[in-house]
Amino acid sequence: MPEPTKKDDGQPEVAPDSSDVPSENSVTSKEAKVATKDTEAKVTEAEAEAAVPTPAAEPPQPQPVVIVVTELEPVEGEVTDPQPIVTEPVENGHSEPEQTQPERSVQVIEVKEEEPSSSKTHDKDDDVTASTPSPPPPAEDGSTPKKLSIDLPNDSDPESTRGRKDSVWSLGDGQPPEEIDKQTENPPLSTLLIEKPQSGSITVGGDITFIAKVEAKDLLRKPTVKWFKGKWMDLASKTGKHLQLKESFERLSKIHTFEMHIIKAKENYAGNYRCEVTYKDKFDSCSFDLEVKEVPEVSQSIDIRSAFKRSSEGQDDAGELDFSGLLKHREVKQEETPEVDVWEILKNARPDEYEKIAFTYGITDLRGLLKRLKKTKKEEKKSEAFAKRLEPAYQVDKGGKIRLIVDLADPTVELKWYKNGQEIRPTPKFIFEHKGTQRIMVINNCQMSDDAAYSVTAGEEKCTTELFVKELPVNIVKELEPVKTTVNERIELECEVSEEGAKVKWMKNGVEVPTGVRSRYRVKSEGTKHWLIIDDASKDDTGTYSLMATGGTSQAHVQVDLKPLKVLMDLQSVTVLLGQPLKLNCEIYPGNVPGRWYKNGQLVQPNDRISITHKTKNHSLDVESSTIHDAGDYTFVPEGYTQTLSAKVHIIDPPRVHLEALNVQDNTVTIVAGNKLRLEIPISGEPAPRVVWMKGERVILDTGSRVHAETFADHTCLTIDITEREDTGNYKIVLQNEAGEDTASVKVKVVDIPDPPEAPLVTEVGGDWCTMTWEPPRYDGGSPILGYFIERKKKQSSRWMRLNFDLCKETTFEPKKMIEGVPYEVRIFAVNAIGVSKPSEPSKPFIPLAVTSEPTMLVVDDVTDTTVTMKWRPPDTIGAAGLDGYQIEYCIEGTDDWIVANKELTEKTKYTITGLPVEAKILVRVKAINAAGASQPRTTQHSILVKEVIEPPKIRIPRHLKQTYIRKVGEVVNLVVPFVGKPRPKVTWLKEGQPIDPTISIRNSDCDSIMFIRKAERKHSGKYELSVQVENHIDTAMLDIQIVDLPGPPQAVKIEEIWGNNVALDWSPPKDSGNAPITGYTIQKADKKTMEWYTCVEHYHRTCITISDLVVGNEYFFRIYSENMVGLSEDATATKDSALIVKEGLHLKNPEYNDRDFTEPPRFTQPLINTFAIAGYNATLNCSVRANPRPKVVWMKNKITIIDDPRYRMFHNQGVCTLEIRKPSPFDGGVYTCKAVNDLGEAQVDCKLEVKVITQE
């Protein structure tokens, strides 16, 4: 059997075995490989046709299913459970060999699972064979794969109905297989798609992904992509558990990627699909096919309990059939259980015993087991030759013995045994026994080669079975041992396992060791021992080696080092002048060791100039005439040894500066400032000289930002990115190396525009002009200043305006024609022969302004012993600069020293000058100040004598306080009483000769006094006296304050007399009048029956009244409210007795009357009327009903009773029924019914309501 080969992705692959000979049961196969995230499955399908054609009219006959099960060697780091490989059925009962068909491969499609779980999950009712895990390779001994033939009954359901009926979504009917194999025509060139989805094939339960890519370089936005099945089914609405659509965008490559994931495919997912891409007026589409293959079910008779245990309790795949339980685990040891044929027990049991049997033998998936049992049950065909046939399958451990027994109906019939179609002859391995009618074949020492299909023929009849040989895990008995050795030595790794001839795998650093003919590795095995041999070890053989067996892994580390070397004379580093010979030599032991010379890691080869010699222990390298390129690190490497010999070779040459390459006069370079200067000066010298650029005593570094020096192999460079005037000067170059030193100088002259002048000064400002001056720039750029340009702009603007087009030779200028009140800025440009300088800094903002006119009407307002108060009017003319304030100055009469009275400007037109000497005479003047300066002063015409004048006090009572000041209780009282008098008067308040209440706040000032009461009370009423006193002068005033409140109720209200329909009432005024006169009374009456009060008279002034026009027979009560200017009293006083109105002189005789029956059924006296309502405005429906007793009213809309609807309100008062519809909408239109029901009957009326919607035009 061929050995497993490796694929590029690290997964094992089994090469086809050309030595297999097709037998009578052999079938041809096609292989399809599906790579998933968890497993890699290889499915073999049998495609065989019957040797004898069957007519189409005959119904299909039951056929056996051939199941091929092989084992795959595990990959390091994981346990691979062997899984069955299912083939399609072949016709039963024909032993003739069939012509094999050639293999054909199916495209491999990689599927990425979206779920993070490592194990695939399936629906609970899905078929067992919906997903086929990775199959193992065939056995090593070259025998054919083992086969299990089981006759399954022909189900009545067609094959197309075997899929699940509870699918989440359906993709429609699948495409016929013959259409899948057809070659599609070449589609037209795509305008959008750069990668199209490709057709694919998967098994039922598998996953697959289709990918489409669109290039987005010429697209402004994301294109629109749609996925279809067939011609019309849009898959965007089918996304869910089995279908996912994803989009992504790679910004670097600018490619849109669209993916369609089909998860756990079903049979009806097969068919033709289409992908459409649209972008504006562009369109592109692509069709592709999906083939879903159904895998026949697997029926096992071996270890049936483990097959029908749930794969994982509580997991997503709980309820799935886990066929890994049928196969051998590598690491987990199975518990030994007695061999019980549960399958036979279930076949022979009654249905009511299934659950008990499943509980007894640990079968948890009873539903799946019964489904399989139903499919596998069939009627036993009666055989004429066999009384008892072979079992469908047998199982035996490797190395064990198995007995195959048949019972013949006729013992004389000739019997033949076959293995995979080949007749079996008696040997020590195969022993035939006869016991009566029983015929027994004993197979001794079963090996993996005995795992095959066996059959026995008796005359024309034949029965078959499958033998499964269970291979025990191979354990490691003796572990590998670590090895440490040197190169060219032999390495031998030994390991012992528990079984002879066991198949093992050797790995190095996790990768399988190649053991081919040309490989450096040799593998040897003897009995249970295995060796890995490396004859000539190298340093690359260092690593971790491991041996993998089915029962475990053993590993050991191998270390290969170089051999030590004895150096008699080491290499010596040398320094050689350029052009001189160079010689390197060394001596090592042993002398027969060859070696190689390396320079800077490169192998040195001998030539006309270089010679390499080896004489016994001496190794030498000679160079006739050294060059610059001969310098470097030389290394001598003896072959096979760890030690190397190294030396450095230096080639030196005196340095030199080649200034003649500049080609400038006097080595002077002139450049305009702002340009880039790059001086490249050739140099020479070996080793490369150390170059230093200097300007004066300052060294120019190569790390400078603007000025920096760079040195290369053959030249040095001085770079000034943006030259400035400071760069002018002599630059010195110094070269140094081991061979000597050299210097040179270069002069650099930088010519520039002048510096900007300083910011100009505005010395004088007028209404529309100013005068400005400035200083010449400090640096003229190496050329005399020719003149200046002047610009100005408004401060809030960003546009400068040139004021002179001819150069101004002077340093003064007078701009004109400016707008008064607008702030301006000016700046200067200096000009020389090179150009115009940068602008100067703007001047301080200035405003062309004019001063105001002088203040007017300056007069004396007040004079004291030390102060004089002046007041005046604003100036008549105020310019655009406005008015900032006033400045007051004074001087003593007879002097010219004007003293500023106010340190800061005052905006008021009144000011008091303080600190004046008593009885001094002063003159006062006032100036108006603005941004333009001070105006002309306004001066008093005569001197002012500083002496206080006494002014008698005078109270100026406001008009509204000259009469009684009335306020209600709780209101605020705020009285302001102004007065005059000098000096400041003394103010005193009294209430009726006594100090005022502390709750009253008094605040006095120079000119008024304020009385404030936050919440007035009646105790605050009274006469208040205000006195103002200045020395012996006193002035007084009286204020009358009245705080009023509601009055109390009248007293002693009584009925004086009753006559006819008249009643005379009398009462007394209230005790509390509310501190205000009683303005009247309000009299009310109430009938004793209803006690509803009605007003008879209002604003009545007297304390007695006669109430007339009373109703005869009624009994009345009366009550009276008192009233003042505040209002009615809070309470009223009522009469204690009532007044009965009777008719005088008549005696009432009560006649006898028969009781009248007032009961009547409901009757609508006013029906409902058809109504139009406006949407959004409340609508009402009204009707009136007459009934006794009072009826129950029910409202209905379209014959449906309206109950607890917040949009409706229903009223019923005095027989009037009202339905209010709140903000109706067109939905509220319809037929409304009002129904009245009582014990005597019922009645109803209808109307139609139409709701109109008003549209806004």
From TrEMBL:
Keyword line: Actin-binding, Cell adhesion, Immunoglobulin domain, Muscle protein, Phosphoprotein, Repeat, Thick filament
Regions of compositional bias (Polar residues) in chain numbering: 20-29
Parts of the chain that traverse the membrane: none
Superkingdom per UniProt: Eukaryota
Residue stretches making up the Ig-like domain: 187-291, 473-559, 564-646, 655-749, 1162-1250
Keyword Magnesium: no
PROSITE patterns for this protein: FN3, IG_LIKE
GO biological process: cell adhesion
Domain Fibronectin type-III, residue spans: 756-855, 856-949, 1049-1145
Annotated region (Disordered), positions in chain: 1-187
Pfam families (alphabetical): fn3 (PF00041), I-set (PF07679), THB (PF18362)
GO molecular function, one term: actin binding
Any Gene Ontology CC annotation: myosin filament
Biased composition (Basic and acidic residues): 1-10, 30-45, 110-127
CDD domains: FN3, Ig
Function of the molecule: Thick filament-associated protein located in the crossbridge region of vertebrate striated muscle a bands. Slow skeletal protein that binds to both myosin and actin. In vitro, binds to native thin filaments and modifies the activity of actin-activated myosin ATPase. May modulate muscle contraction or may play a more structural role.
The family this protein is said to belong to: Belongs to the immunoglobulin superfamily. MyBP family.
Summary of subunit composition and partner proteins: Interacts with USP25 (isoform USP25m only); the interaction prevents proteasomal degradation of MYBPC1.
Protein name: Myosin-binding protein C, slow-type
GN (gene name): mybpc1
